[in-house]
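> example.struct
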């Protein structure tokens, strides 16, 4: 699961309508993150900047010890080369293979598994 995907996932339990984002990443073990080199597409990164919840991305990256993001989001027009490289590395190259995604809502705390990079957000019939 890429952090770009994580940045768009929320808890969908019927009773969990507030404080359900961002889901907390709890790694299965230290080898749960794979780094996969890929060619950078600066236009794609610039296009994604306004769509990213920066606070959630920064929080997730920091929790996974992925560094290089500034505290505040750049604008697509003024993103510098270091930030562009960090965004590419964090959004496109970091691949989380095995973890739990945990709802931050204290009343919910629903945990969703990520196995071999695929998040499973299916709910039981009691949760719908």
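> example.seq
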């Amino acid at each position: 699961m890429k952090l770009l995907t994580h940045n768009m996932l929320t808890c969908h339990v019927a009773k969990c309508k507030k404080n359900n984002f961002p889901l907390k990443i709890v790694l299965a073990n230290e080898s749960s993150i794979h780094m996969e080199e890929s060619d950078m597409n600066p236009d794609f990164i610039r296009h994604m900047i306004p769509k990213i919840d920066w606070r959630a991305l920064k929080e997730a990256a920091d929790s996974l010890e992925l560094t290089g993001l500034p505290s505040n989001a750049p604008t697509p027009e003024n993103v510098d080369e270091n930030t562009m490289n960090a965004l590419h590395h964090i959004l496109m190259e970091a691949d989380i293979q095995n973890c739990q995604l945990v709802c931050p809502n204290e009343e919910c705390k629903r945990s969703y598994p990520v196995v071999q990079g695929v998040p499973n957000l299916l709910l039981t019939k009691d949760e719908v």
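> remarks
The beta strands are 24-27, 33-35, 94-96, 99-102, 111-115, 118-119.
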